[in-house]
Amino acid sequence: MPFSVKKIILSLIGFIVFIIVTYFIYQNVFYVTTDNAQIEGHALLISPKASGFITKVHIIQGQKVKKGQILIEIDDRDYVYSLKQSKANLISLNAKMRDIEINYKRTEKLYKIGAATQQQYDSALANFNDIRAQTESVQAQVLQAELMLEYAKVKAPSNGVIAKTSAEIGQLANIGVPLIGFVDSDERWVTANFKETEIEDIRIGERAQIDVDAISSKSFLGTVFSMSSATGATFTLLPPDNATGNFTKVVQRVAVRIKFDKLSDQDIELLKNGLSVIVKVRKSRENL
User: Fold this and answer.
1) Which of 46, 121, 221, 228 could in theory staple to 180 by disulfide, Cβ–Cβ 3.0 to 4.6 A?
2) Same domain flag for 277 and 176
């Protein structure tokens, strides 16, 4: 009896080992796997297009925002004054232009019937062209002033999340100096860096399984969307010079972009930029 129990236990252990070995062989034969992968999305730094002291801050870190939502407001009194002044100048020039245009047309008619000299006509035409150029210049100033007034309100470029912000009321905002870290909430993808020896097994359109380290409750599915045409080392600040005498062969990696299948809003919220993932891509059937 003890011999039979021992035999059964050994058989069971052998069967379990066989299943495990078979599983790993299957994975290595049919799939390429890497843990050198991260979730990415459209992330950017938002900088104001107008300078001035910040008067209102409508956001906090981690807040969801909609496209066009006002994030911060900059003191716009100078821009309001500039716009009013430009509009006043435009009204004045339009009035002058009407008078000069009337005079020009009258002189033109007189010139055609010989009642005005060439000099009078040329002078009227020059005055008309000059006032028209001035008017167009001030019209451009009005448009520029309107833009600057609009720029005093920094708005969200799309639906997204405020990743970080350094904006404070009373702070001097400068054109081009980033104040807000912003992450678009409409799209996520994975950039997986596969070894150069594995790239031949991957084709665009192949299916992939994505396991996120921070989300143990579920796996995600995706599709290979694109592959880089160069290794990561190609674009480093100091690319390796293999023409020197000392050469150490290092396995290069190629970035592969994997697009998630349809994600819910809740999924996108969980899939934060920079999270580490494990990617498993089915090998191309051509190489099986």
Assistant:
1) 46
2) no
